[in-house]
Amino acid sequence: MDKTKLNELRAELVADRDGQLEFLEEHGADPYGEEVRDLGVANDGFADSAQATEERSEILGHIESARSRIHQIDEALERIDEGTYGVCADCGNAIVEARLEVRPLSIRCVDCAEQAA
After folding, report:
1. How far apart, in whole angstroms, are the C-alpha atoms of residue 23 and residue 109?
2. What is the C-alpha radius of gyration for the chain, rounded to an integer number of angstroms?
């Protein structure tokens, strides 16, 4: 993969990471820990408690997804720095550039990803 494409993918990953971090910050969630200070869900009484619980559960699910994505992005950025980005974790062959453009967090080539599924 040429340096220009690699830099484009890095920028895309960094922008994605920044967006995930912003979401977590808005909800008072530590990106690398379990702490969540404020979900921003009001509970105005008994009648609203079921809805508030549902909203909290939904937000907590989004927080967990954002934390997982940040972890994956950090690993991808580390692979870029190490020079192993775009190399299949299973077979060691190159991951085609088109796959990385669509799924920049891919760690497997198409064949190995199909076998893993």
Report:
1. 30
2. 18
Lowest mean pLDDT among 2-6, 15-19, 30-34: 30-34
Q: What is the DSSP letter of 83?
A: T
Q: Is 112:91 a contact under the CB 8 Å cutoff?
A: yes
| 10 SS3 class | helix
Go through the chain and tell me how many residues it has.
117
- Please check the confidence at residue 47 and state whether its pLDDT lies above 60: no
- Encoding tokens for residue 73? 């992005």
**Whether the predicted pLDDT of 43 surpasses 90:** no
What string of DSSP letters covers 25-79? HHTTB-TTSS-B--------SHHHHHHHHHHHHHHHHHHHHHHHHHHHHHHHHHH
